[in-house]
Amino acid sequence: MVRARRIWVTAAALCAVAGVSPGVAVAQGQPPSAAAALASSDGRGPLPPGWRLTGGTSAPRLEWRSDRPVPMGDARVEFRSDGRLLGVPKPDADGRTFRLPLDGKQSGGPSGLIGLGRPDGLQVWSGGRRLDGRASGGAPASPASPVAPVSPAKPAPPPQLPANGVDPGKPGAYRTKTGEYTLDSVRLPGFAKPVEMRAVVVAPVGAPGKRPLALFLHGRHSTCYRGDEISIDWPCTSGYRSVPSYRGYLRDQQLLASQGYLTVSIAANGINGQDNDTEDGGAQARSSLIRLHLGHWADWARNPGSAPAIVRSAPSADLSRVLLVGHSRGGEGVNRAALDSLYPPPADRDGYHGAVRWTVRGTVLIGPTAFGQNPVPDVPSVSVLPGCDGDVSDLEGELYVDGTRAVTGGSALHSAVYVVGADHNFFNSEWTPGTSAAPAEDDFYDDPERPDPVCGKHAATRLSPDRQHRAGSVYIAAAARLFVAGDDRVRPLLDGSGKRAPSADPARVLSHAVGARRGGGFLPDGGVSVSGGKLCSVVATSPAERCLGDDASGSSPHFAQWGTDQEAGRHAIAVRWTHTGARTRVTSQRPLSLAGAKDLALRLFVPPNSRGAQFDVTLTDTGGHRATLGRIHADGLPGSERTASYWAREFRVPLTAAGRAHVDLRSVKSMELTARSASGRAWLVDAWGWQPGTPAVRAAALPRVDLGRLTVAEGDSGTRTYHVPARVSGHGSGQVRVYVLDPVTGHATDRLVTVHPGGRDIDVPIKVVGNTRYGSDVTYDVLVKAVHGAVVGSYGGGVTVRDDDPAPTMTVTPVANRVTEGQSLTWRVSLSEPVDVDMSAMFAATAPTAGAELSTKDVPAAWLRDASGESPDPERPLSKVSGLYLWVDIPAHRTSADITLPTVKDKVAEPAESVRFRQLDDMTGEPRKDGLVLEGSVLNAS
Fold it and tell me: How far is CA 868 from CA 13, 871, 887, in A?
C-alpha cells in the first residue's frame, strides 16, 4: 500500500499570516523553502519546517525536504500524521526531497488540512525511525510509543554467554573456488525494464556427491555509481557502473563453501531501481528472481553441460536441500520465495512459471523488512536483528518469529538473533566503507554533538565492521548446519538456550525462539485473562491501551507497526510493580498441557539499561495444586532512545518442582510472576513448555490469500459497486483478518474471515458515485493478515477510482489593477465551473514589460516579511526578491477567489510603477509558457 490518503488543502490553509478570510483575498508569499508560512483556518498552526504543498491544480503533492541527504535503504520512507500512515512518497534524485501525490477528493468547504489532522503532526518515518524531527529529549519519536528521555543508567554489553559445544563458525576442510555467471535478463510483472540475471558462485573443491545449495539475495541499495556519485537508476546511465551488492557476501559464502555447501549470491539492482511504486515493496519480484535462478540450477543439475563454466566445475547441487539467505528487502523476498515454493502465487503476478524442483529447508533473514508481516509458518527461519540498525531500525524482522505463533500447529523453529552493536549495512562488504567498490556508509547516523551511547562510532557496545560481518557469517553457518545438515548440536545458539559461538567473539549475540518442541503456550493473543498486570495492545490509537506509552525510551521489535493505526489480535502483558511480592497472574481460558516438557520458557523483557529485576514463576493446575518453579533474573539490553532495545530474552525454569508438588501438567490453569525486586516494569511476550530437539518439519496444506487492486473510472452518473479483488487458492480452510482503511481518516476497521480455496469469503464492496465535476482520484486500501490455518501472499490491495472529468479552465480578471499608492491591487481568479477539489495556482514576480517596477519600499514591510521572509532593505524591485510568490486557492464548489497585493503611500514623487506575476508550472517551478499573468500599476498619490 503506497498510495496517499484523502488529503487536500483549502483556501483557509493558505491564508497569509497577516490574515485574510478564506476564499476572499489570498495574497501570500509561499516560497518552496518557506512552508512555515502556511497557516490553517482553525488556528492549529503552520506546517513544520521542511514541508510544503506543491503541484497546484493538476498534480497536488505533499513535499518534504531533508536538511541532509537521506541514504537509500530498504525501509520505506513514510509520511505520517500523528502516527497514522498517509502514504509512501517518491524520492527525488537529490536524495533529500520526497513527494507524496495527494489523490483524495475535497469534502465540504474550508476545513484546514483534510485528513492530515494537526498540521504540526506531520512526520517522516523510515523503519520505525523519525527522520524529520526530534521528540522530547531530542530523539526520534515512535508512532506507536512516544519517547521519553533516555534512562540515566550507562549502557553496558550483556555478560558473555557460555560457549556452545559445537562452533559452526570454524572453517571446514574444503578449499573453495569462485566464479560468476550472467544470463539473459528477464521481464517481471509490474516492471517496465528487464532485470539482470547475474550471480557469483563460491563452491567447495573436491567435495563428494551432491552438495546442498545456499542462495543469497542482497537488499535495496543504490544501483549505480560514478566516483562519489550514486543513483537509483536502472539501467545505469552512461558513465555509471552497477553497484556490485551481490558480491557483498563472499565472506559468508567462503565459510559455507569450506564446509561443503554450494553457494550463489544473486544480483537484484533491476528490482531495486523499479520497486518504489510496488504495493509490496518488491517482495513478489524478488521471489520470482530467486526461483528463476533456482530453476536454472535445477536444469543444470539435470543437464550439467548446459551450465555456466563455474557451475560445471563445481559439485552438483542437491536441490532437495536449499537454504535461502536474504538481507533487508532481500530477507522479505526470501520469505516470499519460500512461501511461493510451497503455495504457488497467482500466475499473472509471477515471473516464474516452471515446476518447483527444490525444497527450501530454512531461511536466514538479515535485518529484514516485513512490510507484509506474513511469515511462512512451516519453513524454519532465523531473523538476525542488528541492535544498531539505522535503516530497518524498528527491527520488524522480529515479526518473522512472533507472527508464526498459532498460524499452524507445525514444528518449524523460528529464531531471532539479536546482535548487540551491529548496524544494518556492515553484513554486506559492498555496503561497508573501506571494502566497497561504490560509496558506502554507516547507516546509523550519529550526531557528533550528541553521540549515541550505544551505537555511536566510539561507543563501547558498537561492533567494528569486521567483527559484525564475522558474527553474521557464524550465525548463517549455524542456520545451515541446523536446518540443512540437521545437526541439533548447534540449536542452542539459535533457540534461546543461552550459548555462544566463540568464533563470533567479541560480539554479544542473544537468541530466542518459538516453535520446534515448544507447546502449551500462555499466549497473550490466545485467550488469557490477567490480574496484577495489563493485557495491552501492541498497536493502538489510545496511549492508555498501548504496551509502550509516553515513558518508553526507544521502541520494541515485538511492537513494530504495520499499515494500520490499530491491530486486533496483537497483545502482550505489561507488568508494573512497586514492592516485593507483587503478583501478576495469567490465566488461560482453557487448560493447557505442558506434559512432556522439560522447562517452562518465558520470553520477557525489561526496560533497556535496567538491572536486577527478579521474578518467581509459579504454576497452578485446574485442581488448585501450585508449584513455584524457580526464579528468573532479567536485565535490560543496552539501549538508547534511538534503538529498538525492548527485546525479549528467553528465560527457562525447570518443571521438576511441579512434579514434586503433584501439579497436573496435563491441565495447567494459570501462571504467576511474583516480583522479588523492589520495583520495576516488565513485558511478557509469551510462555511455553519447552523440551530440546529439532523435529522434522512438514508443511501443512493451507489456503493462500492474495489481494489485488482495481483501477476504475468514476463515470458521469449513477452508482456502481466494485469489489476488491481477492483470490484464495490452495487447500483446506483458515482464518485471516481483513482491514479496510477509511480513505479520509486512514483509520482501519477489521473483521475475522474464514477463507476457502475458490471462495468469495473476502468481500469488500466499494460504491462509486459518478458525476461530471472535476476532482481527484480516491484510493480505497485493504490489508490482510493470516491468523490461523492460512498463508498470505499479496497482503495489500483495494480500489483506485480515477476521476475522468476534464479540469475547468482558469482565468484571471482584474478587479483593481490600476490603483493609487496605499490601495491594494486585486485580481480575481475564476474557474469555468465548480469542482470537487481545491484548485490553486502560484505566481512568481517577473520584471514588467515596460516602465518602472514596484519596489520593496512600495509594499508594507510586514507583508513582505510574511510573504517572503525578506526585508525591504536594501530597496530593490519585487522581481529581485528571493522567494516572493502569490498563491491563490479556490475552495471546492466555489468558482473564484481574489488575490490582493497591498501597497503603501509614501511622500516620494515618482512615475507610475508596475508589477507582473507569471503562473508557475506545477512540476518544474518555472513560469508557464501559456500561463496566467497578473499585471497592474500603482499611481503616485501626491
Answer: 17, 9, 12
